[in-house]
Amino acid sequence: MALEIQLVVGLLTATAVAYLATPVAMRAAVRLHFLDRPVGYKGHAKPTPYLGGSAVVAAFVLAALLVAGHPERTAPVVAGALVLWAVGTADDRLNLSPFLRLGIEFLVAAGLWAFGLGWELGFGAGIDLAVTALWIAGVVNAFNLFDNMDGAAGTMACVVAGAVAILGAVLGDTWLAVCGAALCGACIGFLPYNLSSPPRIFLGDGGSMPIGFIVGALVMIGASDAVREWQALAMALLLVGIPLLDTCLVVISRRRRGLSVLTGGRDHLTHRTRRRLTTVRAVALALGAAQALLAVLALAAYRGGSVVLVIVVAAYVLAAALAVEVLDAGFSDERAEVEPERRRPRPAWERLAAAGLLGLAFGLSPFYDGGYDSSLWAPAGLVLLALLLALVIGHPLRLTGPAKLALAALTALAGWSLVSVLWTSSPELGFVASNRMIVLAAMLGVLVLVVSDTRSAVFALGGAVTGTVLVGVWTLALMLAGDGVELFRNGRLNGPLGYVNAQGAVYACALIPLLSLAEWRRSPRFAGLGAALGTLCLALAFLSESRGVVIALGAGLVVAFLVAPGRLRRAAALAVIALPVAAASPWLLDVYDEGLAGAL
């Protein structure tokens, strides 16, 4: 049977079984008084049946056994799912110890590893086993925590399982594709009952725990088959990015407020998103869409190679950190009103660190060609759009007039560039240009939302200047070592960015902030450092021999002298920076002459 047919059969079988089995589970839960009663922080209006997980697990197990084949893989996954279904169902009734549950999760993970289905990171069997156990336990508990609102866990599992099925199809792995489709179909068959208003049945721990195990196992196996060693773990993080973000958000937020991580509450990603969206169904769809975007990034990174994967994962980690900071800013729930004395002050360093890291990434951009290559800016643009979406959801827009004007101008330019494909002789170039403008607009949108005050602006600018200075020091070190010839093109400094005018402009952009540091009277040491680094950047900009840089830098200095006070100090600082470069200019010009002559 062809892979496509098996995938469709697995999907439809699981969907039909879950859809037919869920009403049976509802009747059984009512007959056994297996109900979730609305107490404490729980918001549903009346007792609601548990045992929804029984229908989902039964649908997955039946479809996997009938269609997937490969018993050496199917048996361990099915056995682990059934064990955690039993443990979760017992926990719904008896409220088991968290440590007992965690111990069983570790044992089930060890069973997967013993059958050769765990991580193989290249660091030895002990580390592979430990990472496998932590991974399974982490994903199981992430889905358990995410099951806090109607349809949230089911929708998330459906999206992740669908991504696994696509990955299996791309790899030609029939077993992986069918198992992913089976879990996806099981969730599709269950969601109409769980997303109804009001919900007719809940997953319970007997559903969220085995679903989390199946997701964790399939993602681990699929990522390990797609890429090797640590790259597989990085790819897997993207495939379960939203549930892991929710877990991090809850843990960090509760620790800040002095609350136990093990207690329940309405402080999850779903609840915070619910404050900004109209319905529970909209929350499930929005978070599912965000996870789908992360899955697309994971698949694109798999195609782009390890460098793109590292960039995408690093961007995800940065975006997750920013999302936690923005979503938790000023957050309070019902328990915070009851126990105000236990709340801890929210530190501001996370926002400053995020702004600094963003600036540093821009400053270091010459090391990766300024992101000019589409294999870099395309995934980076998707990450920026996802980050912008997270910031908009987590922080309502309150933009100034200039910020609105700048965003509107870039967006309009992107639209005009896109429309130009209708008449241009090179529609591909027009399409690429419009995509780049969209990336720039998303980048600016992220910046104006993250850089919200003077301190964060200083950190962002400081990070960008630091990155540029690091590029300059690296360039100087290469030249002093005699290995810098490849940085030049026709006698002009071209590298590492790869475009003469842009490379010169990077150093010119860093010069103005360094000039302001050089005129700082409070700290002569910092002023001296600013003058020294400013001299370095001006000399490197000089080596680019770019007339455009001269014009832009001149215009920037005119504005700096006309607008900001302290012109006398600024003139003195500029003289300290510019006079050594002027004195060295004959030798700097010799570099250009010798480069033209091919004798550099």
List the helices and strands and how they pair.
Elements: H1 3-31, E1 35-36, E2 48-49, H2 52-68, H3 71-94, H4 98-114, H5 125-146, H6 152-171, H7 174-194, H8 205-226, H9 230-239, H10 241-256, H11 269-274, H12 280-304, H13 306-328, H14 334-338, H15 349-363, H16 374-394, H17 401-419, H18 427-450, H19 454-480, E3 488-489, E4 492-493, H20 500-518, H21 524-543, H22 547-563, H23 567-596
Antiparallel strand pairs: 1-2, 3-4
What does this structure look like?
By secondary structure, this protein is mostly helical. The protein is built from 23 helices and 4 strands. Strands 1-2 form a two-stranded antiparallel ribbon. A hairpin with a 2-residue loop joins β3 and β4. The longest helix has 30 residues, at 567-596.
